[in-house]
Write a structure and sequence with these properties.
Layout lengths: L11 H22 L16 H24 L8 H27 L7 H43 L17 E5 L5 E6 L3 E7 L2 E7 L5 E6 L3 H7 L5 E3 L4 E4 L3 E7 L2 E6 L7 E3 L1 H8 L7 E4 L1 H10 L2
Parallel strand pairs: 8-11
Antiparallel strand pairs: 1-2, 3-4, 3-7, 4-5, 6-7, 8-9, 9-10
Length: 308
């Protein structure tokens, strides 16, 4: 539960699909359980309670949409964990149940009806089934879909080339890197010696490469950076922070400064790329020798002064 929530569960189409499925599931469920409940006042058709029913459903849907929009808008502000996502979903259920209890007591006004506590607890039970179950089903569907997508990309050739099978062309330009979009369609093939790095841009990645004439070019590909990371494990294409995958064969200097490590690529037009703490160990293990590790002079002076 304390693991980081997969980024794709917070993408726009996943959140839209989750809310749509949950609303449809809840409407079907409510129509099935109403005849067996003594606390439900939902009615369809020609009934005085129909307007209350329609209003309650409309407001609840608007609340769920607003909640998921907020979740989407804040996805870059902090890393959401699985437990935080679960608590967010539970909070949505609790708010809707409190709203239902208020409507039941102050609008519908049942004569001699159940006490507020019983109304809330009964609503909490059925709302948990109506919303949390489709939430879990939707998450499982997207997780399985992403796993199948990654396997399909690797089987199509987008995965890593085994070290003993890697080959270079006659000009020595390195192994061929094939990149596929989310549908498994080949979009770009490039020699590894021309590839610099890949940059996440929402649901896309920007592939930065040398066009063979010394010019830095960018290709936009609809794919998740996580998929590329998983597909190219064991190759010089290594994740160095939340936003970048770098071709370590193009690194000329690994530089340590007071705020962490930085990678200088062999193209002066590319700004240094930082290595965040999460990925430092994985990056450093690729540099046993052959790359200069330069420490920031100012950082060295501070260490000398403090004796650290």
């Amino acid at each position: 539960m304390n693991r980081m929530l997969p980024k794709y569960l917070l993408e726009k189409h996943q959140l839209t699909g989750t809310v749509t499925f949950a609303v449809l599931f809840a409407i079907v469920f409510l129509n099935l359980y109403i005849p067996f409940s003594d606390t439900a006042w939902f009615r369809l058709g020609n009934s005085v309670f129909f307007l209350f029913t329609a209003g309650f459903i409309a407001i609840s849907i608007l609340f769920l949409v607003a909640s998921r929009v907020l979740m989407y808008k804040t996805r870059h502000l902090f890393e959401m964990r699985v437990v935080q996502y679960a608590l967010w979903c539970i909070a949505e259920v609790v708010v809707i149940c409190l709203f239902y209890t208020f409507v039941t007591l102050d609008v519908v006004r049942p004569d001699g009806g159940p006490v507020p506590y019983r109304i809330f607890m009964r609503a909490l039970l059925y709302a948990s089934i109506a919303l949390l179950v489709p939430y879990m089903m939707s998450a499982m569907y997207f997780i399985i879909g992403e796993k199948e997508k990654t396997i399909r990309l690797m089987n199509c050739g987008g995965g890593a080339v085994p070290q003993d099978a890697a080959q270079t062309d006659e000009a020595g330009h390195g192994s061929l890197v094939s990149l596929f979009d989310n549908n498994g369609t080949l979009k770009l093939s490039i020699r590894s010696s021309y590839l610099y790095y890949m940059e996440a841009d929402d649901n896309y990645i920007k592939v930065w490469y040398d066009d063979g004439r010394g010019a830095l070019k960018m290709y936009l590909l609809r794919c998740r950076l996580k998929t590329v990371e998983e597909s190219f494990k064991g190759t010089p294409l290594v994740r160095c922070n939340r936003k970048y995958i770098v071709n370590l064969d193009k690194v000329k200097v690994l530089r340590k400064e007071s705020d962490g490590y930085f990678l200088d690529l062999d193209n002066d037009g590319i700004v240094p790329i930082s290595v965040t703490r999460t990925y430092t160990e994985n990056v450093l293990k690729h540099f046993p020798s052959g790359v200069a590790i330069v420490e920031d002079p100012a950082s060295a002076v501070r260490k000398a002064e403090t004796g650290t």
